[in-house]
Design brief:
The protein has 532 residues and is mainly β. 11% of the residues lie in helices and 41% in strands. Strands 18, 19, 22, 23, 24, 28 and 29 form a 7-stranded mixed β-sheet that branches. Strands 1, 3, 4, 7, 8 and 40 form a 6-stranded antiparallel β-sheet that branches.
């Protein structure tokens, strides 16, 4: 009989630490149930798939080498393929047969025969070290072009059909951003909007918001889409030596919402990390005594709304959605009380937390904040300035002239939120997400109704679901007309992993496409409709 420790080790190995083999040629899936006839296109996903190189292993799950995989829907059939991103990082590691390029939670030293100090002087000549191009977090779209992305200044163009790795693109060649989010937004004109941090440019550290127009289909120059990038605006970091870490931002039709949280990147620590022999993750500190600041930027004027909005210290990775309602900006996020989530994904902690049956020290909480855009300066201290009746969120003027925001709690224990993106920046009702219990491993996928506060869920024993993605029906008349797609990793040795297809309205299973291949638990991705 398998012991608890054996089960723990099995789950960690199958879901997190086992190296995957790529499947470069299309593999036809076995269908149970059925695939909707209207579902035509490709689900393209990204995430860590290789955690050991030679005799060396990465310290953190988010450090694993990028493995792209896709599920192509064609006439009721599904075809699967996967390929490792052939980044410079991947190639260097494979050539050396060990880890030679540092990742966020794993510091590597390319030449073990050289003294660490001699190599370190190269790093000390720059404020920001040379980052990895292991773009393992998401897929970004620029017009008809697709790029694997992480949070560094590098992205890698990919072929969405063959999954081949194409050219390497450096944001720094087009604008001074050292760190860039993997969660951009897209507007109705086809523009991609994103933001990044510019560290030490002319002695200033600032957050930059930029727009990238779509690449013309007849673009024969093959130049990067970033050639036409436009900086929308920039705002200075509250502390120039300790800018905020962030993973995403919010957007409505007229406003950008940025949260400067007290999860701070210490630039001096970053510049000396290699010299000191510590990883870059150790250069980020959560400062619980500091406030969280909300910046609302008007896209029309390219300026911030004047009021100073703040709340208590929190950590946020994922914005859910935002909307404008009667002179207010309403934005929804998944928030934590500290940064322990990242710590729990160190490989050693995953095994320890599972085996010791310990609980998460900070659970994800779905919060709604409301910011009044037009406040009379004569408003009395202590008065709630939110005039919306459908929320319990408040915004109160303080003695020092700031506006302190208290959120409405919508629900708990959901992460990796997705919505029907046609409703991005607008009033919406449904959120699709992963649900976690006492571990940072998703065990269910859920649909949460913001109006009724009801939750539907799907789960299956020994199945570990990835982020659910909503695909709308082409003739949709309601917000939840469509399907949910989620790649499911099975830890059952007698069953295949599979792609799950749910009816987004009822959350009942329509079908599944079982894959005779090593599916990995991915992070984020997109659906590319078939335009033919």
């Amino acid at each position: 009989m398998e012991s608890t420790d054996d089960k723990v080790e099995s789950v960690v190995n199958v879901v997190f630490s086992r190296n995957r083999q790529e499947c470069p040629e299309p593999l036809k899936a076995e269908i149970q149930g059925h695939i909707p006839s209207w579902l035509q296109g490709t689900l393209l996903r990204n995430g860590p798939g290789l955690h050991t190189v030679g005799e060396m292993s990465y310290n953190h799950w988010f450090d694993g080498l990028s493995l792209l995989h896709s599920f192509t829907f064609k006439n009721g059939e599904v075809y699967y393929r996967s390929k490792f991103l052939r980044s410079d990082t991947y190639n260097a590691n494979m050539e050396a047969k060990r880890i030679v390029v540092s990742e966020f939670g794993t510091m590597a030293y390319p030449d073990p025969c050289k003294n660490i100090f001699s190599k370190a002087f190269t790093y000390l000549s720059h404020v920001v070290p040379e980052f990895t191009d292991n773009c393992l977090i998401n897929i970004i779209q620029f017009g008809d072009d697709y790029y694997a992305s992480s949070e560094t200044n590098y992205i890698r163009k990919i072929d969405p059909v063959s999954l081949d790795t194409l050219e390497k693109v450096d944001y720094l060649k087009y604008m001074t951003v050292n760190l860039v989010t993997s969660h951009p937004h897209y507007d109705n004109a086809g523009n991609t909007l994103n933001m990044g941090t510019s560290i030490g440019d002319k002695g200033k550290t600032k957050y930059m918001f930029f727009k990238i127009p779509p690449v013309a289909p007849d673009n024969e120059s093959k130049k990067s889409a970033l050639k036409n990038a436009e900086v929308v605006c920039s705002i200075p970091a509250h502390n120039l030596l300790s800018p905020s870490y962030y993973h995403s931002f919010g957007m409505t039709e007229n406003y950008i919402i940025f949260i400067e949280q007290p999860l701070k990147l210490d630039i001096l620590k970053l510049a000396t990390a290699y010299f000191r022999g510590v990883n870059w993750a150790s250069c980020i500190d959560f400062r619980s005594e500091e406030k969280t600041r909300f910046y609302i930027i008007d896209k029309r004027t390219k300026k911030m709304v004047a009021e100073k909005f703040c709340t208590d210290a929190l950590v946020v990775y994922h914005h859910v959605n935002a909307q404008e309602v009667d002179g207010h900006v309403v934005f929804d996020i998944i928030a934590y009380k500290d940064n322990s989530l990242y710590e729990m994904f160190y490989m050693a902690n995953l095994r320890k937390d599972l085996s010791q049956d310990t609980k998460m020290t900070s659970i994800p909480v779905f919060k709604r904040f409301v910011v009044p855009l037009h406040c009379d300066k004569k408003e009395e201290v202590g008065k709630n300035l939110v005039k919306l009746h459908e929320t319990t969120a408040t915004a109160v003027k303080t003695k020092d002239g700031e506006i302190y925001c208290e959120p409405e709690i919508l629900c708990e224990r959901i992460e990796l939120p997705r919505i029907n993106y046609d409703y991005n920046g607008k009033r919406y009702r449904y959120v699709y997400a992963s649900q976690v219990e006492w571990r940072p491993i998703p065990t269910k996928i859920v649909k949460f109704d913001l109006v009724t506060k009801e939750m539907l869920s799907w789960s299956e024993d020994m199945c570990w679901p990835a982020e659910p993605l909503f695909v709308p029906h082409p003739d949709a008349k309601e917000e939840d007309d469509g399907v949910i797609l989620s790649s499911i990793v099975s830890s059952n040795e007698n069953a295949f992993s599979f792609l799950l297809i749910l009816d987004a309205k009822t959350f009942k299973e329509i079908g599944r496409a079982s894959i005779n291949a090593n599916l990995h638990l991915d992070l984020h991705g997109i659906f590319i409709p078939d335009k033919s």
